[in-house]
Amino acid sequence: MAEPTPRRNEPRLRPAPLLFEPAEAAADPEHFFDLESIDDPHALLARSTELAQAFRAAADRAVEYQAMAAAQLADPRRFDRLTPADIAERAEWTEDYAKKMVEYGQRLMRGAEGGGPDPV
After folding, report:
1. Which residues contact 80 (CB under 8 A, 6 or more apart)?
2. Chain segment 42-88, per-residue pLDDT in tens
3. Which of 9, 19, 52, 106 is the most buried (most CB within 10 A)?
4. Rounded Cα gap, residues 78 and 74, in angstroms
5. DSSP string across 82-107
6. For helices 84-91 and 95-110, angle between their N-to-C axes, nearest 10 degrees
7. In whole angstroms, what is the distance from residue 9 CA to residue 102 CA?
8. DSSP the chain
């Protein structure tokens, strides 16, 4: 299970860098961040663990940005605000999930201490 995402006042751990692969390498279904070329199982476990942690951290961070964007789009002070149904349609979510994401984004933007787990 992924570790909780640190809040704004906590330092973020730096995961392994995610480097973009050349197009020809990405086109090969057997190629994945050069892991297939690592023969030592110790090194393979270490590098694949680094990548898994980096992907989780990136996904957690992306969800936070989704939530903040949803909260901003639903802000009643906006003349062009969107309803949760509109946000759900654009993000391909359910309306209930969109409502939870708006609430989560509002907590994040307020900088609420321990903003709670993401609504996933």
Report:
1. none
2. 999 999 999 999 999 999 999 999 999 999 999 999 999 999 999 99
3. 106
4. 8
5. --HHHHHHHHT--HHHHHHHHHHHHH
6. 100
7. 21
8. -PPPPP-TTSPPP-PPP-PPPPHHHHHSTT-STTGGG---HHHHHHHHHHHHHHHHHHHHHHHHHHHHHHHHHH-TTSTT---HHHHHHHHT--HHHHHHHHHHHHHHHHT-TT------
Write the pLDDT tens digit of every residue in 20-37: 555 555 566 677 888 888
The closest of 106, 103, 114, 102 to 8, measured between CA atoms, is 114
Using a 10 angstrom Cβ sphere, with 0-12 exposed, 13-18 middle and 19 or more buried, the burial of residue 101 is buried
Q: What is the pTM of this model?
A: 0.65
The residue type at 119: P
Is 99 within 8 Å of 55 (Cβ atoms)?
no
**8 A C-beta contact, residue 9 and residue 3:** no
Tokens of 110: 């307020």
Look at 27 and 91; give whichever has higher pLDDT. Answer: 91
